[in-house]
Amino acid sequence: MKKLTQLILTLALLLTACGKESGDGSNTDMSVDDSSVEQIRYEYGIPVDSFFVVEDVVHKGATLSGIFASAGVPAPTQRAVMLASREAFDARQLRPDKRYLLFYPRRFDADDTHDSIPAYFVYLQSITETYVFHLTDSVHVERQAKNVERRRRCSSAVVETSLWNALVEQQLSPMLAVELSDIYAWSIDFFALQKGDSMRAYYDELFVDTMRIGIGRIFAAVFYHAGTPLHAYFYDSEALADSVKHEYSVGYFDQNGKNLKKAFLKAPLNYKRISSTFTYARKHPIYKTVRPHTGVDYAAPAGTPVVALGDGKVIEKGYKGGGGNTVKIRHNSTYTTAYLHLSKYGKGVGVGKYVTQGQVIGYVGSTGASTGPHLDFRVWKNGTPVNPLTLESPSADPVPQDGRTAFKKIVEQMDSLLNLYDLKIQSN
């Protein structure tokens, strides 16, 4: 007891001495310096330093229950979490090569070991979407979504070898090249760009935290190809900030309101070769008789996606004798197309349904009178068969008359932004 009393007195004297300033005897500030306190590090809402983390990817054929079993999650917990996750997470969303993390509680003993049962399972579905499975206490699944920030910017680049390389050299997103190639797909061959070609674009760039993840909307662009400026302006009648109900129109148009998009694609699939051309006198390979073949046969592997040449309404779908599985589309009062010998149909394709240009309407097959997998593609103009290979595609619809005034204002606004950026670059 005597030793304890002496210890208390000694500590009291030390504390008193620490409270004195050696210079003038005034009290010192006893507040704690926050910088000396170790901050707790959180990720996904979890204090990660308290856990041993195992990182892996979903392997082909893996299931959520299989991953849990391998990780050491007890069977009762597996059942509880699978039940709890039904509304928050569809186990069928699990995709090969997606990352996941397992958090095992540290014991902080001499060997720094950890528990054999994880407390959390974190599935990284995408850059912006994560699912956190709480495997202890209150078993539940939490969806975490990161905000995508849109930063508006204007950029330019001059082609030396390719647009992709030009953008990379300017430390710009190469995805801008992909978006521009889609916009100008009907007017510029991006595999035949010339040295000195250049572009300028006003667009949204997408970020998550500080990471650039892609390109958002391109609002305007001008591409100088072989000395000719090609303008593109985005117009959406439903997004106009006025009370007028405009005729529906959306897409990219030139400065005069002409649609940059053509009504039809060059071909309805990626093919290896043309095995038979448009003719009124072909000896049929199966029937051995001479008859018209008012279409083009595209040889391609079975299962190759076949897309609609343009927007339109499906007027026929089904097995058509020698033509096998067939889809027929009316695009407008002038043009109709047909796709024969399909192995199967595209999702949602049915008579009376509307399809859009580039939508998958079927897959290459060899149904009907066919000697091998190919697509027999046919086009009618005003009810008369025409050669798809010589078809000159008209432009898609221009900006409607009731939207011309609003479109003109968009052009003026975008031009001023692009020209202002151009002047800024020249001044530098």
Topology, pairings included?
Layout lengths: L1 H17 L23 E2 L2 E2 L3 E7 L6 H8 L3 H10 L14 E7 L14 E5 L4 E6 L5 E6 L3 E10 L4 H7 L5 H9 L14 E11 L2 E15 L2 E9 L13 E4 L19 E4 L2 E5 L6 E4 L2 E4 L5 E3 L4 E8 L5 E6 L4 E11 L8 E2 L4 E5 L9 E8 L2 E3 L17 H24 L1
Antiparallel strand pairs: 1-2, 3-4, 4-5, 5-6, 6-7, 8-9, 9-10, 10-11, 11-12, 13-16, 14-15, 16-23, 17-22, 18-19, 18-21, 19-20, 20-22, 20-23, 23-24
Describe the structure.
This protein has helices at about 1-20, 65-70, 75-85, 165-170, 175-185, 405-425; strands at about 40-45, 45, 50-55, 100-105, 120-125, 130-135, 140-145, 150-160, 200-210, 210-225, 230-235, 250-255, 275, 280-285, 290-295, 295-300, 305, 310-320, 325-330, 335-345, 355, 360-365, 375-380, 385. By secondary structure, the chain is α+β, with helices and mostly antiparallel strands. The strands form 5 sheets. Strands 13, 16, 17, 18, 19, 20, 21, 22, 23 and 24 form a 10-stranded antiparallel beta sheet that branches. A 5-stranded antiparallel beta sheet has the order 3-4-5-6-7. Strands 8-9-10-11-12 form a 5-stranded antiparallel beta sheet, sandwiched between helices.
